[in-house]
Design a protein that fits this description.
Number of helices: 2
Helix content: 25-40%
Strand order of the largest sheet: 1-2-3-4-5
Order of helices and strands: HHEEEEEEEE
Length: 173
């Protein structure tokens, strides 16, 4: 039996070089797009986490300062760099050393620091233009305001923590 060779019989199954190169280029484009998208999501996630931490720190610092103002019995002294509060923690009506709290501008001039008998704690960092405002000179101070600028992720905003002393220490006057 003689087999007749035709053009149809010589064609083998498979892909041509052009088809393989085209598939390789399309795969490379899809993988590059996926890598770029993954990188963008990772960057956005890190940025969002950083914003969340900054906002939580700002909330904690402002809440701590406003509670300190509100629950203090009196203001012992005031200055351009800070304020000293007395809070009668043990309700004995006597000003003890452990009951004074100072909110002041930190040594680096960019932070608000809480100082008491147990040490100092940075309440807010990376601040600028910190201003203390009082309605009267101590010990008659009933209203305290702390104004400051804070840069969060490249945007500088003006913040203020204000409050009136709810407790009274008139018996000491």
């Amino acid at each position: 039996m003689n087999r007749v060779m035709t053009k149809h019989n010589l064609v083998r199954g498979g892909f041509t070089m052009v088809e393989l190169l085209t598939a390789l280029m399309i795969s490379a484009i899809v993988l590059a797009a996926a890598a770029t998208l993954g990188s963008a999501f990772s960057s956005a996630s890190a940025s969002t986490e950083n914003i969340g931490k900054n906002q939580a720190n700002l909330r904690y610092g402002t809440l701590r300062i406003s509670e300190l103002i509100r629950f203090s019995n009196s203001v012992i002294s005031t200055s351009a760099n800070g304020v000293v509060f007395w809070a009668d923690d043990n309700a004995d009506g006597v000003e003890d050393a452990g009951e004074t709290y100072t909110v002041e501008i930190g040594a680096d001039t960019t932070s608000l620091v809480l100082v008491n008998n147990s040490g100092s704690t940075v309440l807010l960092s990376d601040c600028s233009n910190i201003i203390f405002v009082f309605d009267e000179v101590a010990p008659d101070t009933r209203f305290v305001g702390i104004l400051f600028d804070k840069n969060v992720n490249g945007v500088t905003s003006r913040y203020q923590v204000t409050g009136g002393l709810l407790c009274r220490a008139d018996h000491k006057i």
